[in-house]
Amino acid sequence: MSNTLVRSDAGKIVVPVLLGPTAVGKTRYALELAQLNGWEVLSCDSRQIYRGMDIGTAKPLRHELELVKHWLIDVKDPAEIYSAFDFASDAAGIIRNRASAGTGVILCGGTGLYFKALSEGFSANVETDPSLKASLMERGKRDGSRSLHDELLRVDPDAALSIHKNDLQRIVRALAVYLQTSVPFSRSKSKGNAPADMEFRTIILTMERTLLYKRIDQRVDQMIELGLVNECSSLLDSGITSESPGLQCVGYKELTAFFKQVLSLREAVELIKQNSRRYAKRQSTWFSHQVEALYFESGIDSAALHDAFRKKNSMI
């Protein structure tokens, strides 16, 4: 295997980046490109960081993880918060460490905010995860905005003192920023510094929407067949609660409603499909507005992606 694309002519670390919506085929391409070039894979996925959540997050299979070294998979328990700020710090360290050893790393995933935090530095103006905000809004409507305000007061008193206890929208915004970045909203107004020693070359995989939605539905059915219900049940039995960060992910949140007898299993599965399709649509929209990249239809030969990564014009 040839180990290529580690540093540019200017001496910067070259970071190939493969982004795209869920179920578009990123994992397969990343694995093929990594094997072709002697790269390692750095996961850019806010769900695959969690241990014990394998089926519902479509993690690479065990033999794939053995074929190529993968980073930032299975690094946290589902009860722990892992923010975009944490990812940016961890990912930058891994990229620099592997480059010093002469090894390239391909960044692969669908969590745009993670990539934005790494490549540009975090700004409070960056769009936060809609699913997190939706979950916080749901809690606020159920438990009252003042309960969330009390939580905000503990983690970011400056922001809390500037927001009325009944202003649920702004409370949720401030809390979402903190939960995703570990940076208080009151101190996250200024944009962070982009890593000057890295050159990101970014490709976004796309697929015709009808076909993508069909693939999503099929993959959810496959996840159920593989044991997603039992996987979620085991997490709950281990003491992970339905309010834990990991179980807010699509696939798990709906099944916790099933275990609470709020939904039937059939209803939960259909809701997983619906929410997965919505998530894919949000991802695609976010990428189109937030990331400069070359676009390729999924199904293209890996060699074409390889050639594109070698060209500087795929740099963000």
What's the name of the CATH homologous superfamily of the largest domain? P-loop containing nucleotide triphosphate hydrolases
Q: List the uncertain runs.
A: none
Helix % is 40-55%
Please outline the major beta sheet.
Answer: 6 strands, parallel
Question: What is the correct CATH architecture of the largest domain?
Answer: 3-Layer(aba) Sandwich
Topology at a glance:
Elements: E1 13-19, H1 26-37, E2 40-44, H2 62-67, E3 70-71, H3 84-100, E4 105-109, H4 112-120, H5 130-143, H6 145-155, H7 157-162, H8 168-181, E5 198-206, H9 209-226, H10 228-237, H11 253-259, H12 265-290, E6 294-297, H13 302-309
Parallel strand pairs: 1-4, 1-5, 2-3, 2-4, 5-6
Helix pairs in contact: 3-4, 5-6, 5-8, 6-8, 9-12, 11-12
